[in-house]
Amino acid sequence: MSPERRYNEKEIDEIFRDAAKSQEAAQRQLSHSEGLTLAELQQIGEEAGITAEFIARSAAGVDQTDFPQPQTRFLGLPISVARTIDLPGPLSDEAWDRLVVGLRETFGAHGQVRSDGSLREWKNGNLRALVEPTDSGHRLRLQTLKGSAQTGLIGGLALLAFGIISLTILMTKGDIVFAEILLPMLFCVAGLGVSGITALRLPRWISERSDQMEKMGQRAVVLVGEKFGTARHKDQASGSSDRDSSAEPTQTGPTREEPTVAEPSEVQSILSEQTDTETDTAEETRTKNRT
After folding, report:
1. Three-state SS for 261?
2. Which of 101, 115, 134, 209 could form a disulfide with 81 if both were Cys (CB 3.0 to 4.6 A apart)?
3. Are strands 119-124 and 127-133 parallel, antiparallel or unpaired?
4. Distance between CA 90 and CA 132 in Å, rounded?
5. What is the rounded distance in angstroms from the CA atom of residue 84 to the CA atom of residue 221?
6. For the packed helices 178-247 and 38-47, what is the interaxial angle rounded to 10 degrees?
7. What is the pTM of this model?
8. DSSP code of 36?
9. Residue 173 pLDDT more than 60?
10. How many angstroms from the chain centroid is the CA of residue 134?
11. From the CB of residue 91, how many other CB atoms can be counted at a distance below 10 Å?
12. pLDDT in tens, 191-202
């Protein structure tokens, strides 16, 4: 039998360098072709010591699809925000409860919850969150309308219009007194101020609501991903337990008793009794010989 081949240091470096290049090329080819499924990613993660649940969370975040909806406009200004998020699966009762808690914390409102079969809704004024089934799965719809913006814009324009009309009427009389035009001018200034402040606040409100909805969409996707990741982990644990139990040998036939090992104190007591017995026997023998 020939001795096993041994490689020197230079050959070892070359072997590992070529192997690394081959592996990198294979991974690059895989990423451009078929990719990996969630189950395969979880299997790789478990081998690396990463829990399947966290793999599912990260994958759910990647799979999130967020569709901004058309905005409602008033006098050319956007006064609504809406998002539609496709979910990788249905929301369980526990996941829905946790999502409602997140909605209340994020938007600072208690709201009302309503369920009708597979339809779920959380509503607080114009702010709504709906979970509903679709042909391709489930989705979360978030939408809100800033009703106070309409009131502010209408009220400001009304004050401005009243001030302008009053000034026009006073100017048509001919003799203009400053005390008479002061009040209409104040109405015009107030109208411009209310409308301007309302319009300036809208971009900040839209940005804040958009970020909040994006956050809740990610949370919903993660909650669905946790459900599927935990279920798969439990199935794997159950399968492993079944394999372990089936691998245990079943003992048939009569059982063999194991020999009992005496304690050191018991051994010393037995030896002492044997010594005493031998001594008594020897004394009896000497007594018989004398007689």
Report:
1. coil
2. 209
3. antiparallel
4. 9
5. 12
6. 70
7. 0.56
8. -
9. yes
10. 22
11. 20
12. 999 999 999 999
